[in-house]
Each structure stands twice: as structure tokens, then as C-alpha cells.
Amino acid sequence: MVVYGVALLAACMLAGLVVGDLLGILIGVKANVGGVGIAMLLLILFSDHLKRTLRMNALAEQGILFWSAMYIPIVVAMAAQQDVVAAVKGGPAALIAGVLAVVLSFALVPVIARIGQPADARRDTSQPEAACAMPLKSGE
Amino acid sequence: MFDVLTSVLVKNGLLTAFAVVGATIWVSYWLSRVLTNGRLHGSAIAIMIGLALAYAGGVSSGGHNGLADIKLLSGIGFMGGAMLRDFAIVSTAFGVSFGEIRKAGLSGVVSLFTGVLLSFVVGAAVALAFGYSDPVSMTTIGAGAVTYIVGPVTGAALGASSDVMALSIAAGLVKSVLVMIGTPFMAPYIGLDNPRSAMVFGGLMGTTSGVAGGLAATDPKLVPYGAMTATFYTGLGCLMGPSVLFIATRALMGG
User: What residue numbers bound the domain in which B66 lies?
Assistant: First the structure.
């Protein structure tokens, strides 16, 4: 049944949001801490278990895959309701703060992606690593 | 006749949104094929059109929810709202390899702390450069550069003035819009083509909407990995903003 997949997805998300809200209360912040991430982990664990014990069939999978295929349209709808006017109106201070934060974060992606990587994989990329580290130092 | 049409469209807002978004995506993929020969992905164009429409909607309605403030298109607000957005994000985790996530775990955690700290320091420094030298304003604007949720949460906790709050939200919005648009262009230069770098990317950027949109336009297979870390970012920012980051800023500025 298709609905089993949708129900599993919904249950994982609700459980994740509850845990995220509880975490937020526990550490005293007004935000959901990692609810979506926890829901994703739950979905990975449950669906893997159900598939291995053959209790999840192709139809149930369809119930999850439909939503994952709707992801991009939903993101387009999300983009269409951003407060772009406010972002533009914020003036140079907001613009510069936002742009610099993004540019520096982009630059750090390859550097941090190397942390905790196995040594042999690191050796392969040692050349570009040196090349990347230099401009970053001057940017700090 | 026209009244009947609009009343049907308004009453069935979500379905109107499905039709409008579907048409937008169809146009986007057509533009991608005709204008860029498929080089710029259709979904990237669709997201840019979405943002442009949000600007037009915001200007014409004077509201804060882009196109969703236009009554005829209020269903867009539901379709792209937090509930369905998070539902769709969670669904992308189906079929994700748990091993990949565990392998990238450490760099994911490092990226989260680095991401919050880096964006905060940049935002606070820019605030100082523009003459906001009191610790409360600096912290609030710095927190806004983390995400547009962390900014007002921090500002409210510290009692920042409303213009500073607005500025912090604007900084966060600029960041989120820029990540949505810029990611597909930057991806080849920062090695954003595997689950590990996607997790690091999500942890560094942190803006859920930016990461979700940016990765969707780059490679939809990477979405779950980026979203996984990004979801912890705002929480971490809300935790650190009014506490350690404010205390550090005050100590530095001697307020």
C-alpha cells in the first residue's frame, strides 16, 4: 500500500520534530535542534530494517519516492515566497555581511571536507590541498 | 466568468500552486535547453525565477512572503512552507547510505562549528565597519549573518533595537538567496560532487532554504547529505548567539 510509505515518512518526521523541540527546550534555545536531521536518520534506519526483513514492498516505496520527486517543485515554491525585497532593501551592510559570509564559507568547503578522511585518500589530493590553503590564509 | 475563475483558484490554493509551479518548471527546463544548451540546470533557473517572482510579489503587495502574499497565489505559501518543505527534505533521505554519513561525521561536526563562527565573525565585523559598535548590535547582526532565524532570536534575547533586527534578518536573507543562486556555479571549484563535501557544505552554510535550493540545482542526489547537517546549524546558532558569542563580543569590545 502506498500509504504505508507516506505514513512511515510522516511518522519519522513527527518523531524527529518532537525530539528536536525537546532538545531545544533541554538546552534552552527557542529553536528546533536538528529535528529534520533526526527524522532523516530515523527514516534511513527504519526503511533499511523494513526492506531487509522484506516487510516493505515497491508500492510502499512509491509513497516515499513521490515526495522525494516533489522536492524540487517544493523548493521552487519556497523560493517564490522569500522576502527578497527585504534582502535587497537591507542596504550595503546587510549585502556585504551576507556576501562575505557566503564567499568565505564556500572557500572552506574543500578544506574541512578533508578532515577525518583516510590517509590514502588524502595523499591523492595533497597537491590541490596546498594550492587551496594558501589563498585561504591570506583571507583570514 | 472571471470572478468564478478567481474564486475557484483561491479556494483551491494548493492546487493552483501545483499548476503554477509546474508551469514555471516547464518554462525553466525549456529555457535551460534553448538558452544554455542544458549547461545551467533547469531547477537552478526555476529557483531564480521563483526568487524573481518573490521580488515582484513583494513589491506589488508590500508584504514579506513574496508571491504568497498575492491572494490568488497564497497556495504557494503552503506548498513551499516549512511543513511540506521539511517533509520533502526528509523523504530524500530514503536510499541514503548510512556508511557515508558515518564516514563524514567528524568533518560534518567541524563544519557546523566553523560555519556558525565564521559567519558570525564576518557579520559582526561588517556591523562594526558600518558603525554599529555596541556589543548587542554587533552580536545581533553577526547572528543574522549566521541565518535569518538566528538573528532575530539572538536580537530578541539581547534586546536589540528593531532597525538592527531588520538589518540582521536582511543579512541572513542575502546569504540564503545567494547560496540558492551561487551553489551550482561554485560547485565545480569547491569539489561539491560527493556526499562528504555535501555534508560539509550543509554544515558551513547552514541556511536550510539556501542549502536545499542550492544543492537541488547542483545535484539532487546530494540534497539529503547537505540537509542533514544544515538542520543542526540554526539550533547551534541560536544556542551560541545570545550566550558565548555575545559574551565574547562584549569582552572584545568592552561594552
Answer: 2-80
